Amino acid sequence: MRSAASVLLVTTASGILFVASAHSNSETRSQTHVDLAGLVGHRQNEVKELQDSVASLKDQIAGHVPATSQQGSDTVDELSKHPVSGPGITVTLSDAPTDTVPDNVNPNDLVIHQQDIDDVMNAMWEGGAEAMTVQGVRIAPRTVVRCIGNVILVGGTSYSPPYKISAIGNVNQLRNSVETNPRVVNYQRYVARYGLGWDLKTSDNLEFPASAQDLSLRYAQVVKENG
User: Fewer CB within 10 Å, N side or C side of the chain?
Assistant: First the structure.
């Protein structure tokens, strides 16, 4: 009897604990479900607010960027269509002489590369160049300057060195931008070491011709949003 009673008591107690545990787990899951649901709802509200904010900013940007971009593009195109004059600088690059260079020098270090021309042009643009020519050819938005062998093509015409890059703008700013540009500074090391040609001159009045390129757009059109 004592043993049977003990077994009955233990069994009864275990049942109570099991039911209590199950009830507790059920409450925990329910509470967790409620908390997760609330958290998800809160996050959804935050996302909705952010989406509304982004949409509002996009509307504000759309009201300014198209007009600004189009105006900038039109200005560059329009300027390229007309001759211009003004103060500026001219940089001349040329290959190094080959008769005074040691035999173990890489021949590529003795000639002007497209990157050298690009570096000078980029430095001029960064210095506020308002107009530019390469070999006397007016640079327009779609003018291609490309090096092929020991010559460059500018707008489809080939030119041999020396190469002249000219820019109209604030002379001091242009000169400072070119002379302090890291890539141009690196070029100067080759000037000192191997005798690559470098010459920078300022002018009170440079005269640039109009671009000979057809700058009209035949197929591309500005996309206008509905509404």
Answer: C
- H-helix segments, the chain: 2-62, 65-80, 114-126, 171-180, 182-194
Q: In what order do the strands lie in the sheet with 157-159?
A: 145-148, 151-154, 157-159
Distances (CA, A) of 151 to 96, 120, 159, 160: 15, 17, 5, 5
The C-alpha atoms of residue 76 and residue 62 are separated, in whole angstroms, by 22
Q: Which residues of the chain have pLDDT under 70?
A: 1-78, 101, 213-222, 226-227
Q: Are 152 and 145 in contact (CB under 8 A)?
A: yes
154 vs 102, 139, 213, CA distance in Å? 33, 9, 11
According to the model, what pLDDT value does residue 69 have? 42
pLDDT of residue 183: 96
SS3 138: strand
Please give the pLDDT value at position 204. Answer: 97
Cβ proximity of 155 and 165 under 8 Å: no
pLDDT at 219: 64
Tell me which residue of 146, 124, 94 sits closest to 206, measured CA to CA.
124
